[in-house]
Amino acid sequence: YNRIGIMGAMVEEIDLLHKHVEKTGSFVKAGIEYVEGTLHGRNVVFCKSGVGKVNAAVCTQLLIDAGVDCVLFTGVAGAVEPSLNVGDIVVSTSCLQHDMDVTPLGFARGQIPFQEVWEFQAAADLVELANHACESLFPGRSVTGKVLSGDQFVADRAEVQKMHEELGGACTEMEGASLAQVCVMNNIPFVVIRSMSDKADGSAHVNFAEFTVQASVNSHRIIDEMIQHM
Ligand code: ADE
Predict the structure, then answer these.
(1) pTM to 2 decimals?
(2) Which positions fall inside the Nucleoside phosphorylase domain (predicted)?
């Protein structure tokens, strides 16, 4: 990869990139700042998309238009897989929009009507790189799995159980499947790396801010480790 795109949704998620990337330039489009530079000698472009699928879609397309040849997402998520604890990591094998719901017309939950693919596959080489990074930095604390995205902060145990049983999700967040869809539409490889900030069960407000900082650090360290081996 010659030009690596890195995206986060919130300031905590890209703060460490601001500190560690040697900047060579920047530009603003659609109100989003794209910072160009080098990280461990590799060309990178990073940006903060803002929260939610629309922000992530616009941001991903503009990142691709800026010439990146892969996209890495770093951030936090709510755990769906019951074995996951706060601070554990999910590397996306695929991403699906859990809030895409045209079930009244007979489509499956998550299915985008009239489209053959609605579960978007991450690039196998990037998944492997991310797994290696996870195993060396946080042994035994990561899984690969399906990332469920929607414009909702999930805070309900019953909903989480459904997301796990019906959709086979590992974690839930608000951008991954949007980024994934845009990458697939452009034939650009991607992987989403999410560290768990909460269990999506309604207790997040208690310590979301604190866990988000720690989880963002974990997620950043994985990206940093990956780039050294890309
Ligand atoms: N990001 C972090 N935790 C989340 C949750 N519970 N739901 C949606 N996005 C999240």
Answers:
(1) 0.96
(2) 3-227
